[in-house]
Amino acid sequence: MEKVRIYDTTLRDGMQAEGISFSVEDKLLVARKLDEFGLDYVEGGFPQSNPKEALFFQRLAEQPLKHAKLVAFGSTRRAGNTVQDDPGIKALLEACAPACTVVGKSWDLHVNTVLRCTLEENLAVCADSVDYLKKHGKEVIFDAEHFFDGYKSRPTYALETLRVAERAGASSLNLCDTNGGCMPWEMEPMVRAALAQSRVPVGIHCHNEAGMAVAGSLLAVKAGASLVHGTIGGIGERCGNADLCSVIPALECSMDCSCLPEGRLSLLTGTARYIAEVANLTLPGSLPYVGHSAFAHKGGMHVDGVRKDSRSFEHLDPERVGNTRRLLVSDQAGRAALLEKLTAIAPDLTREDPKLAEIVDKLKQREHLGYVFEGAEGSFRLLALKLLGRSERYFDVLDFRVFCEQPWEHGSAQAYIKVAVNGQEEITAAEGDGPVNALDKALRKALAVFYPALREIRLIDFKVRVLDGGGTASTVRVTIESTDGRQVWGTVGVSVNIIEACWQALVDSIVYKLAFLG
Is residue 487 part of a domain? Predict the structure, then answer.
Protein backbone atom coordinates (compact mmCIF):
# COMPACT_ATOMS: atom_id res chain seq x y z
CA MET A 1 0.00 0.00 0.00
CA GLU A 2 1.46 3.33 -1.09
CA LYS A 3 1.93 6.02 1.57
CA VAL A 4 0.63 9.49 0.64
CA ARG A 5 1.21 12.30 3.11
CA ILE A 6 -1.55 14.87 3.64
CA TYR A 7 -0.78 18.56 4.07
CA ASP A 8 -3.66 20.68 5.38
CA THR A 9 -3.72 24.40 4.60
CA THR A 10 -7.15 25.24 6.02
CA LEU A 11 -5.59 27.70 8.49
CA ARG A 12 -3.78 29.63 5.74
CA ASP A 13 -5.22 29.07 2.26
CA GLY A 14 -8.64 28.33 3.76
CA MET A 15 -8.60 31.61 5.67
CA GLN A 16 -8.20 33.45 2.38
CA ALA A 17 -11.73 32.43 1.44
CA GLU A 18 -14.29 35.22 1.36
CA GLY A 19 -16.17 35.41 4.66
CA ILE A 20 -13.76 33.21 6.64
CA SER A 21 -12.10 34.60 9.75
CA PHE A 22 -10.57 32.61 12.60
CA SER A 23 -9.54 33.99 15.97
CA VAL A 24 -6.42 32.61 17.64
CA GLU A 25 -8.64 30.35 19.76
CA ASP A 26 -10.49 29.17 16.64
CA LYS A 27 -7.20 28.34 14.94
CA LEU A 28 -6.03 26.37 17.96
CA LEU A 29 -9.27 24.36 18.00
CA VAL A 30 -8.97 23.59 14.29
CA ALA A 31 -5.27 22.67 14.51
CA ARG A 32 -5.90 20.24 17.35
CA LYS A 33 -8.85 18.67 15.52
CA LEU A 34 -6.71 18.14 12.41
CA ASP A 35 -3.96 16.67 14.59
CA GLU A 36 -6.46 14.29 16.19
CA PHE A 37 -7.64 13.31 12.69
CA GLY A 38 -4.11 12.15 11.92
CA LEU A 39 -2.84 14.46 9.18
CA ASP A 40 0.90 14.70 8.48
CA TYR A 41 1.24 18.48 8.14
CA VAL A 42 -0.87 21.34 9.47
CA GLU A 43 0.02 24.69 7.96
CA GLY A 44 -0.61 27.33 10.59
CA GLY A 45 -0.40 30.51 8.55
CA PHE A 46 1.91 33.34 7.54
CA PRO A 47 3.72 34.47 10.73
CA GLN A 48 4.85 37.74 9.13
CA SER A 49 1.31 38.87 8.26
CA ASN A 50 0.04 40.01 11.70
CA PRO A 51 0.53 39.57 15.48
CA LYS A 52 -2.38 37.11 15.66
CA GLU A 53 -0.52 34.64 13.47
CA ALA A 54 2.66 34.95 15.54
CA LEU A 55 0.68 34.39 18.75
CA PHE A 56 -0.87 31.24 17.29
CA PHE A 57 2.58 29.72 16.69
CA GLN A 58 3.67 30.71 20.19
CA ARG A 59 0.64 29.03 21.75
CA LEU A 60 1.30 25.79 19.88
CA ALA A 61 4.95 25.87 20.92
CA GLU A 62 3.75 25.73 24.54
CA GLN A 63 1.56 22.69 23.82
CA PRO A 64 2.77 21.07 20.58
CA LEU A 65 0.65 18.94 18.28
CA LYS A 66 0.89 15.22 19.00
CA HIS A 67 0.93 13.78 15.48
CA ALA A 68 1.01 16.45 12.79
CA LYS A 69 4.02 18.59 11.99
CA LEU A 70 3.24 22.31 12.30
CA VAL A 71 4.25 24.36 9.26
CA ALA A 72 4.82 28.09 8.88
CA PHE A 73 4.23 29.61 5.45
CA GLY A 74 6.17 32.37 3.74
CA SER A 75 7.84 33.60 0.59
CA THR A 76 11.40 33.43 -0.64
CA ARG A 77 13.52 36.47 0.12
CA ARG A 78 12.78 39.59 -1.89
CA ALA A 79 14.94 40.15 -4.94
CA GLY A 80 17.60 42.66 -3.91
CA ASN A 81 17.49 41.69 -0.21
CA THR A 82 20.09 39.59 1.52
CA VAL A 83 18.56 36.45 2.99
CA GLN A 84 19.87 37.34 6.48
CA ASP A 85 18.02 40.69 6.47
CA ASP A 86 14.80 39.66 4.76
CA PRO A 87 11.83 40.20 7.16
CA GLY A 88 9.83 37.30 5.73
CA ILE A 89 12.67 34.85 6.19
CA LYS A 90 13.24 36.16 9.73
CA ALA A 91 9.57 35.56 10.54
CA LEU A 92 9.83 31.96 9.36
CA LEU A 93 12.88 31.38 11.52
CA GLU A 94 11.23 32.91 14.57
CA ALA A 95 7.96 31.01 14.12
CA CYS A 96 7.79 28.16 16.60
CA ALA A 97 7.28 25.56 13.88
CA PRO A 98 9.63 22.73 12.91
CA ALA A 99 8.80 23.03 9.20
CA CYS A 100 8.21 25.85 6.79
CA THR A 101 6.83 26.11 3.28
CA VAL A 102 8.59 28.64 1.08
CA VAL A 103 6.77 29.77 -2.04
CA GLY A 104 8.93 30.63 -5.04
CA LYS A 105 8.17 31.69 -8.60
CA SER A 106 8.42 29.03 -11.31
CA TRP A 107 6.63 30.90 -14.13
CA ASP A 108 8.80 33.22 -16.19
CA LEU A 109 5.85 35.59 -16.63
CA HIS A 110 5.72 36.16 -12.86
CA VAL A 111 9.45 36.57 -12.60
CA ASN A 112 9.45 39.20 -15.35
CA THR A 113 6.24 41.10 -14.56
CA VAL A 114 5.67 40.61 -10.79
CA LEU A 115 9.13 40.21 -9.28
CA ARG A 116 10.69 42.27 -12.09
CA CYS A 117 14.03 40.56 -11.85
CA THR A 118 16.02 38.31 -14.16
CA LEU A 119 15.36 34.59 -14.42
CA GLU A 120 18.83 33.90 -13.01
CA GLU A 121 18.23 36.17 -10.01
CA ASN A 122 14.99 34.36 -9.22
CA LEU A 123 16.87 31.04 -9.14
CA ALA A 124 19.32 32.58 -6.67
CA VAL A 125 16.41 33.88 -4.56
CA CYS A 126 14.92 30.37 -4.35
CA ALA A 127 18.24 28.68 -3.58
CA ASP A 128 19.31 31.21 -0.92
CA SER A 129 16.00 31.05 0.93
CA VAL A 130 15.84 27.26 1.08
CA ASP A 131 19.52 26.91 2.00
CA TYR A 132 19.37 29.51 4.79
CA LEU A 133 16.29 28.02 6.45
CA LYS A 134 17.63 24.49 6.10
CA LYS A 135 20.93 25.44 7.75
CA HIS A 136 18.97 26.93 10.65
CA GLY A 137 17.28 23.60 11.37
CA LYS A 138 13.99 23.92 9.51
CA GLU A 139 12.43 21.26 7.34
CA VAL A 140 11.80 23.18 4.11
CA ILE A 141 9.02 22.42 1.64
CA PHE A 142 9.49 24.33 -1.62
CA ASP A 143 6.21 25.55 -3.14
CA ALA A 144 6.67 26.03 -6.88
CA GLU A 145 4.01 28.68 -7.46
CA HIS A 146 2.27 28.56 -10.87
CA PHE A 147 4.34 25.50 -11.76
CA PHE A 148 1.96 24.20 -14.43
CA ASP A 149 1.55 27.58 -16.13
CA GLY A 150 5.30 27.98 -15.92
CA TYR A 151 5.89 24.57 -17.46
CA LYS A 152 3.57 25.38 -20.36
CA SER A 153 5.43 28.64 -20.95
CA ARG A 154 9.02 27.52 -20.43
CA PRO A 155 9.36 23.92 -19.20
CA THR A 156 13.13 23.94 -18.74
CA TYR A 157 12.95 26.96 -16.45
CA ALA A 158 10.04 25.62 -14.36
CA LEU A 159 11.99 22.41 -13.81
CA GLU A 160 15.16 24.35 -13.00
CA THR A 161 13.43 26.10 -10.07
CA LEU A 162 12.76 22.65 -8.63
CA ARG A 163 16.36 21.56 -9.16
CA VAL A 164 17.87 24.56 -7.38
CA ALA A 165 15.46 24.16 -4.45
CA GLU A 166 16.32 20.47 -4.12
CA ARG A 167 20.08 21.14 -4.29
CA ALA A 168 19.63 23.81 -1.60
CA GLY A 169 18.08 21.26 0.77
CA ALA A 170 14.29 21.20 0.23
CA SER A 171 12.76 18.08 1.78
CA SER A 172 9.96 18.02 -0.81
CA LEU A 173 8.90 19.94 -3.91
CA ASN A 174 5.32 21.07 -4.28
CA LEU A 175 3.77 21.67 -7.70
CA CYS A 176 1.10 24.38 -7.58
CA ASP A 177 -1.77 24.94 -9.95
CA THR A 178 -2.15 28.40 -8.46
CA ASN A 179 -4.65 29.74 -11.00
CA GLY A 180 -6.71 26.54 -10.85
CA GLY A 181 -7.20 26.25 -14.60
CA CYS A 182 -4.99 23.31 -15.54
CA MET A 183 -6.77 20.16 -16.70
CA PRO A 184 -5.82 16.90 -14.94
CA TRP A 185 -4.68 15.24 -18.17
CA GLU A 186 -2.38 18.21 -18.78
CA MET A 187 -0.91 17.85 -15.29
CA GLU A 188 0.04 14.20 -15.49
CA PRO A 189 3.01 14.47 -17.92
CA MET A 190 4.26 17.59 -16.08
CA VAL A 191 4.18 15.75 -12.75
CA ARG A 192 6.08 12.86 -14.33
CA ALA A 193 8.68 15.28 -15.69
CA ALA A 194 9.22 16.73 -12.20
CA LEU A 195 9.47 13.26 -10.68
CA ALA A 196 11.97 12.12 -13.31
CA GLN A 197 14.56 14.64 -12.15
CA SER A 198 13.80 14.70 -8.42
CA ARG A 199 15.21 12.55 -5.63
CA VAL A 200 12.94 14.06 -2.96
CA PRO A 201 9.16 13.61 -2.70
CA VAL A 202 6.99 15.63 -5.06
CA GLY A 203 3.66 17.08 -3.92
CA ILE A 204 0.56 18.64 -5.52
CA HIS A 205 -1.37 21.80 -4.59
CA CYS A 206 -4.49 22.46 -6.69
CA HIS A 207 -6.96 25.31 -6.74
CA ASN A 208 -10.49 24.79 -7.99
CA GLU A 209 -11.30 27.51 -10.52
CA ALA A 210 -12.03 24.90 -13.19
CA GLY A 211 -13.66 22.46 -10.74
CA MET A 212 -10.72 20.07 -11.19
CA ALA A 213 -8.81 20.41 -7.91
CA VAL A 214 -9.72 16.97 -6.53
CA ALA A 215 -9.32 15.24 -9.91
CA GLY A 216 -5.97 16.94 -10.50
CA SER A 217 -4.72 15.95 -7.06
CA LEU A 218 -5.70 12.29 -7.54
CA LEU A 219 -4.20 12.10 -11.00
CA ALA A 220 -0.97 13.63 -9.67
CA VAL A 221 -0.81 10.86 -7.06
CA LYS A 222 -1.42 8.29 -9.78
CA ALA A 223 1.52 9.82 -11.66
CA GLY A 224 3.73 9.46 -8.57
CA ALA A 225 3.18 12.46 -6.29
CA SER A 226 3.30 11.47 -2.62
CA LEU A 227 2.21 14.67 -0.84
CA VAL A 228 -1.22 16.27 -1.31
CA HIS A 229 -2.18 19.77 -0.19
CA GLY A 230 -5.78 20.78 0.43
CA THR A 231 -8.33 22.17 2.86
CA ILE A 232 -11.27 20.78 4.80
CA GLY A 233 -14.43 21.38 2.79
CA GLY A 234 -12.36 22.80 -0.09
CA ILE A 235 -12.48 26.34 1.31
CA GLY A 236 -9.95 28.80 -0.02
CA GLU A 237 -9.37 31.90 -2.09
CA ARG A 238 -11.67 32.43 -5.10
CA CYS A 239 -13.17 28.98 -5.83
CA GLY A 240 -11.20 27.22 -3.14
CA ASN A 241 -8.67 24.40 -2.89
CA ALA A 242 -8.70 20.65 -3.34
CA ASP A 243 -11.16 19.30 -0.79
CA LEU A 244 -9.40 16.88 1.54
CA CYS A 245 -12.81 15.48 2.49
CA SER A 246 -12.92 14.03 -1.04
CA VAL A 247 -9.20 13.47 -1.63
CA ILE A 248 -8.51 11.42 1.50
CA PRO A 249 -11.31 8.83 1.18
CA ALA A 250 -10.71 8.53 -2.56
CA LEU A 251 -7.04 7.74 -1.91
CA GLU A 252 -7.76 5.34 0.94
CA CYS A 253 -10.81 3.57 -0.45
CA SER A 254 -10.33 3.68 -4.22
CA MET A 255 -6.58 3.99 -4.85
CA ASP A 256 -5.12 1.67 -2.19
CA CYS A 257 -3.13 4.48 -0.58
CA SER A 258 -2.49 5.00 3.12
CA CYS A 259 -3.08 8.60 4.27
CA LEU A 260 -4.13 8.32 7.90
CA PRO A 261 -3.29 6.23 10.96
CA GLU A 262 -5.33 3.06 11.23
CA GLY A 263 -8.97 3.69 12.15
CA ARG A 264 -8.94 7.47 11.63
CA LEU A 265 -10.89 7.61 8.35
CA SER A 266 -14.12 7.18 10.30
CA LEU A 267 -13.40 10.57 11.93
CA LEU A 268 -13.68 12.35 8.56
CA THR A 269 -17.31 13.49 8.71
CA GLY A 270 -17.08 14.58 12.34
CA THR A 271 -13.89 16.51 11.63
CA ALA A 272 -15.42 18.29 8.63
CA ARG A 273 -18.55 19.28 10.55
CA TYR A 274 -16.58 20.40 13.60
CA ILE A 275 -14.34 22.68 11.54
CA ALA A 276 -17.34 24.05 9.62
CA GLU A 277 -18.94 24.87 12.95
CA VAL A 278 -15.84 26.73 14.17
CA ALA A 279 -15.73 28.60 10.84
CA ASN A 280 -19.46 29.40 11.10
CA LEU A 281 -20.08 27.65 7.78
CA THR A 282 -22.80 25.29 6.63
CA LEU A 283 -21.37 22.32 4.77
CA PRO A 284 -23.29 21.79 1.51
CA GLY A 285 -25.56 18.77 1.88
CA SER A 286 -24.32 17.41 -1.44
CA LEU A 287 -20.65 17.46 -0.43
CA PRO A 288 -19.14 14.06 -1.33
CA TYR A 289 -18.52 11.63 1.52
CA VAL A 290 -19.31 14.04 4.39
CA GLY A 291 -22.42 15.94 3.24
CA HIS A 292 -25.76 15.41 4.95
CA SER A 293 -27.17 14.09 1.65
CA ALA A 294 -24.13 12.07 0.56
CA PHE A 295 -25.84 8.79 1.50
CA ALA A 296 -29.49 9.92 1.36
CA HIS A 297 -31.99 7.87 -0.65
CA LYS A 298 -35.41 9.09 -1.73
CA GLY A 299 -36.76 7.10 -4.68
CA GLY A 300 -38.59 3.90 -3.79
CA MET A 301 -36.43 1.78 -6.10
CA HIS A 302 -33.26 3.17 -4.56
CA VAL A 303 -34.51 2.63 -1.02
CA ASP A 304 -35.56 -0.92 -1.81
CA GLY A 305 -32.21 -1.65 -3.42
CA VAL A 306 -30.21 -0.26 -0.51
CA ARG A 307 -32.26 -2.24 1.98
CA LYS A 308 -31.49 -5.46 0.08
CA ASP A 309 -27.83 -4.72 -0.63
CA SER A 310 -26.30 -1.32 0.07
CA ARG A 311 -23.84 -1.78 -2.80
CA SER A 312 -26.70 -1.45 -5.25
CA PHE A 313 -26.87 2.34 -4.77
CA GLU A 314 -23.87 3.25 -2.60
CA HIS A 315 -20.26 3.35 -3.73
CA LEU A 316 -19.02 3.14 -0.15
CA ASP A 317 -20.23 2.13 3.30
CA PRO A 318 -21.05 5.52 4.91
CA GLU A 319 -19.68 4.33 8.25
CA ARG A 320 -16.18 4.11 6.76
CA VAL A 321 -16.10 7.92 6.59
CA GLY A 322 -18.16 8.52 9.72
CA ASN A 323 -21.37 9.40 7.87
CA THR A 324 -24.79 7.75 8.05
CA ARG A 325 -27.29 6.41 5.58
CA ARG A 326 -30.55 8.37 5.39
CA LEU A 327 -33.78 7.07 3.87
CA LEU A 328 -35.78 10.18 3.10
CA VAL A 329 -39.39 10.47 4.13
CA SER A 330 -41.56 11.43 1.16
CA ASP A 331 -44.55 10.34 -0.87
CA GLN A 332 -42.11 8.43 -3.08
CA ALA A 333 -40.66 6.31 -0.30
CA GLY A 334 -43.39 3.75 0.45
CA ARG A 335 -44.14 1.63 3.52
CA ALA A 336 -40.90 -0.39 3.34
CA ALA A 337 -38.80 2.76 3.50
CA LEU A 338 -40.77 4.12 6.45
CA LEU A 339 -40.36 0.84 8.29
CA GLU A 340 -36.62 1.02 7.70
CA LYS A 341 -36.49 4.57 9.07
CA LEU A 342 -38.48 3.61 12.15
CA THR A 343 -36.21 0.71 13.08
CA ALA A 344 -34.03 2.92 15.27
CA ILE A 345 -36.92 4.10 17.44
CA ALA A 346 -39.23 1.07 17.14
CA PRO A 347 -37.22 -2.07 16.34
CA ASP A 348 -40.24 -4.27 17.17
CA LEU A 349 -42.45 -2.62 14.52
CA THR A 350 -43.46 -4.90 11.64
CA ARG A 351 -44.90 -4.27 8.21
CA GLU A 352 -48.25 -5.73 9.32
CA ASP A 353 -48.47 -3.64 12.49
CA PRO A 354 -51.53 -1.33 12.40
CA LYS A 355 -49.36 1.39 13.97
CA LEU A 356 -47.30 1.51 10.77
CA ALA A 357 -50.46 2.01 8.71
CA GLU A 358 -51.50 4.80 11.10
CA ILE A 359 -48.13 6.52 10.65
CA VAL A 360 -48.38 6.25 6.86
CA ASP A 361 -51.90 7.73 6.91
CA LYS A 362 -50.89 10.57 9.22
CA LEU A 363 -47.86 11.29 7.03
CA LYS A 364 -50.07 11.57 3.96
CA GLN A 365 -52.52 13.84 5.82
CA ARG A 366 -49.70 16.12 6.92
CA GLU A 367 -48.23 16.23 3.41
CA HIS A 368 -51.66 17.17 2.08
CA LEU A 369 -51.66 20.11 4.48
CA GLY A 370 -48.28 21.23 3.15
CA TYR A 371 -45.79 19.51 5.43
CA VAL A 372 -42.71 18.09 3.72
CA PHE A 373 -40.63 15.72 5.84
CA GLU A 374 -37.88 15.04 3.32
CA GLY A 375 -35.72 17.80 4.79
CA ALA A 376 -37.35 17.65 8.21
CA GLU A 377 -36.77 14.14 9.47
CA GLY A 378 -36.55 15.44 13.01
CA SER A 379 -40.25 16.35 12.90
CA PHE A 380 -41.07 12.99 11.28
CA ARG A 381 -39.35 11.01 14.03
CA LEU A 382 -41.12 13.04 16.72
CA LEU A 383 -44.48 12.49 14.98
CA ALA A 384 -43.79 8.74 14.82
CA LEU A 385 -42.87 8.62 18.51
CA LYS A 386 -46.12 10.34 19.38
CA LEU A 387 -48.24 7.97 17.27
CA LEU A 388 -46.42 4.98 18.74
CA GLY A 389 -47.17 6.26 22.25
CA ARG A 390 -43.47 6.52 23.09
CA SER A 391 -42.96 10.27 23.26
CA GLU A 392 -42.00 12.14 26.43
CA ARG A 393 -43.16 15.56 27.55
CA TYR A 394 -39.99 17.49 28.24
CA PHE A 395 -41.60 20.87 28.88
CA ASP A 396 -44.80 22.87 28.63
CA VAL A 397 -45.03 26.37 27.22
CA LEU A 398 -47.49 28.20 29.46
CA ASP A 399 -47.38 31.54 27.70
CA PHE A 400 -45.41 33.59 25.22
CA ARG A 401 -45.71 37.04 23.67
CA VAL A 402 -43.73 38.70 20.90
CA PHE A 403 -43.36 42.45 20.34
CA CYS A 404 -41.92 44.27 17.35
CA GLU A 405 -41.32 47.99 17.03
CA GLN A 406 -39.96 50.57 14.66
CA PRO A 407 -37.34 51.51 13.70
CA TRP A 408 -36.35 48.05 12.39
CA GLU A 409 -32.95 47.90 14.00
CA HIS A 410 -30.81 45.30 15.74
CA GLY A 411 -32.77 43.96 18.70
CA SER A 412 -36.05 45.55 17.55
CA ALA A 413 -38.08 42.48 18.56
CA GLN A 414 -38.62 41.17 22.08
CA ALA A 415 -40.10 37.88 23.24
CA TYR A 416 -41.45 37.00 26.69
CA ILE A 417 -41.94 33.33 27.55
CA LYS A 418 -43.05 31.17 30.47
CA VAL A 419 -42.23 27.45 30.51
CA ALA A 420 -42.67 24.65 33.00
CA VAL A 421 -40.59 21.51 33.48
CA ASN A 422 -41.91 18.94 35.96
CA GLY A 423 -44.01 21.64 37.60
CA GLN A 424 -41.14 24.10 37.98
CA GLU A 425 -41.71 27.35 36.09
CA GLU A 426 -39.19 29.63 34.41
CA ILE A 427 -39.99 33.08 33.01
CA THR A 428 -37.57 34.91 30.75
CA ALA A 429 -37.31 37.34 27.86
CA ALA A 430 -34.92 37.99 24.99
CA GLU A 431 -34.27 40.48 22.23
CA GLY A 432 -33.76 39.45 18.63
CA ASP A 433 -33.49 40.64 15.05
CA GLY A 434 -37.13 39.94 14.32
CA PRO A 435 -39.84 37.98 16.14
CA VAL A 436 -38.59 34.49 15.25
CA ASN A 437 -35.05 35.22 16.39
CA ALA A 438 -36.37 36.69 19.64
CA LEU A 439 -38.61 33.66 20.24
CA ASP A 440 -35.79 31.24 19.49
CA LYS A 441 -33.47 32.97 21.96
CA ALA A 442 -36.10 33.25 24.68
CA LEU A 443 -37.22 29.63 24.42
CA ARG A 444 -33.70 28.21 24.55
CA LYS A 445 -32.72 30.63 27.33
CA ALA A 446 -35.63 29.47 29.50
CA LEU A 447 -35.16 25.76 28.83
CA ALA A 448 -31.38 25.83 29.22
CA VAL A 449 -31.99 26.30 32.96
CA PHE A 450 -33.28 22.72 32.98
CA TYR A 451 -31.42 21.31 29.95
CA PRO A 452 -27.96 22.91 29.65
CA ALA A 453 -27.20 20.93 26.46
CA LEU A 454 -29.62 23.21 24.59
CA ARG A 455 -26.97 25.93 24.69
CA GLU A 456 -25.15 23.92 22.01
CA ILE A 457 -27.93 24.33 19.44
CA ARG A 458 -27.46 26.76 16.57
CA LEU A 459 -29.87 27.46 13.73
CA ILE A 460 -28.00 27.07 10.42
CA ASP A 461 -30.78 27.34 7.85
CA PHE A 462 -34.26 28.85 7.73
CA LYS A 463 -36.65 28.62 4.79
CA VAL A 464 -40.17 29.99 4.31
CA ARG A 465 -42.35 28.78 1.45
CA VAL A 466 -45.79 30.15 0.49
CA LEU A 467 -48.10 27.20 -0.27
CA ASP A 468 -51.12 28.86 -1.85
CA GLY A 469 -52.14 32.09 -3.51
CA GLY A 470 -53.86 33.71 -0.57
CA GLY A 471 -51.67 36.80 -0.45
CA THR A 472 -50.71 37.82 3.07
CA ALA A 473 -53.19 35.24 4.41
CA SER A 474 -51.40 32.37 2.63
CA THR A 475 -50.47 29.14 4.32
CA VAL A 476 -46.73 28.96 4.75
CA ARG A 477 -44.28 26.17 5.40
CA VAL A 478 -41.22 26.90 7.54
CA THR A 479 -38.30 24.48 7.49
CA ILE A 480 -35.31 24.98 9.73
CA GLU A 481 -32.02 23.14 10.05
CA SER A 482 -30.25 22.98 13.40
CA THR A 483 -26.94 21.68 14.67
CA ASP A 484 -25.22 21.04 17.98
CA GLY A 485 -21.81 20.99 16.31
CA ARG A 486 -21.92 17.21 15.87
CA GLN A 487 -25.26 16.35 14.28
CA VAL A 488 -27.56 18.22 11.89
CA TRP A 489 -31.34 17.82 11.88
CA GLY A 490 -34.32 19.42 10.18
CA THR A 491 -37.80 20.28 11.45
CA VAL A 492 -40.92 21.77 9.86
CA GLY A 493 -44.03 23.78 10.69
CA VAL A 494 -47.09 24.75 8.60
CA SER A 495 -49.72 27.39 9.36
CA VAL A 496 -51.53 30.43 8.00
CA ASN A 497 -49.76 32.26 10.83
CA ILE A 498 -46.06 32.52 9.99
CA ILE A 499 -45.14 32.91 13.67
CA GLU A 500 -46.97 29.69 14.51
CA ALA A 501 -45.28 27.83 11.65
CA CYS A 502 -41.89 29.04 12.90
CA TRP A 503 -42.84 28.11 16.44
CA GLN A 504 -43.73 24.52 15.46
CA ALA A 505 -40.37 24.07 13.75
CA LEU A 506 -38.44 25.65 16.64
CA VAL A 507 -40.14 23.53 19.31
CA ASP A 508 -39.57 20.34 17.29
CA SER A 509 -35.91 21.27 16.91
CA ILE A 510 -35.46 21.50 20.67
CA VAL A 511 -37.50 18.38 21.47
CA TYR A 512 -35.53 16.41 18.89
CA LYS A 513 -32.27 17.37 20.59
CA LEU A 514 -33.63 16.26 23.97
CA ALA A 515 -35.21 13.05 22.68
CA PHE A 516 -32.48 11.73 20.42
CA LEU A 517 -29.18 13.52 21.06
CA GLY A 518 -29.17 14.13 24.81
Answer: no
